[in-house]
Write a structure and sequence with these properties.
By secondary structure, the chain is mostly beta strands. Helices cover about 0% and strands about 40% of the residues. The chain has a five-stranded antiparallel sheet with strand order 6-5-4-1-7, with no helix packed on it. A four-stranded antiparallel sheet has the order 14-15-16-17, with no helix packed on it. Strands 8-12-13 form a three-stranded antiparallel sheet, with no helix packed on it. This is SH3b domain-containing protein.
Amino acid sequence: MFLRKIYLFIFFGFICLSTSISKAQPYIISSKEGYTHVRTGASAKSKIIAKLKENTIILLDEIDEGSENEDWKKILFYNERPFSILEETDHIEMETGFIHKSQMKELTALKKPNSEVFSMDFEIKAFRKQDYRLTYHDESSYAPKTINGFHYYLADCGLPKTAVIKATATLNGQKLHIPQKYILGIISAQNRFEYYQNGNHYFAYQGVDGSCFNYVVWVFSDGKLSQRFVGWEY
């Protein structure tokens, strides 16, 4: 693989299909304090390496739980990078650490909002590489490394067949336009969403099987986009 060693996949599926079962799951930070500390080890005495706010998207690492203490869970997360934006860089890894299981909730266990309250929509057309500035992995013309200067997360499936050219969300009757820079890294996404709600926080969760697998979660808080999580399993 061009980007990372991939094990088992379920999400964001674009072109290549797989029937494997996922070994990482998206969760949100859920704490009465409004945040939680991420630590180097499975103990409250371990060093703090990050502070994640309530409703931040993380992945529970079920491939390598890394601890015999079932009360502590190994997670994959971004620290101070809420939109997973990567510009002209090879450093794509998420950080890892431990949090107590009481500080997280499974995303898909949250309630589902009324479709009239929250939805997302992509305008999609055929991808034409001449419309974009592309760089490639390994000097090939198959696996894009960047599109218009932004890291492309789905290079394992080669050049996109389709392109998202416009993305909007509707929240409580208000149209919210998604900046194009948040689309470039996942440009071959499709109009497949699952919707969840936690208080005044809304989540649009995308995906189908694929060896170009990524988890993608759009988070809207207080009437605006607050996070775009793009993650994968190691």
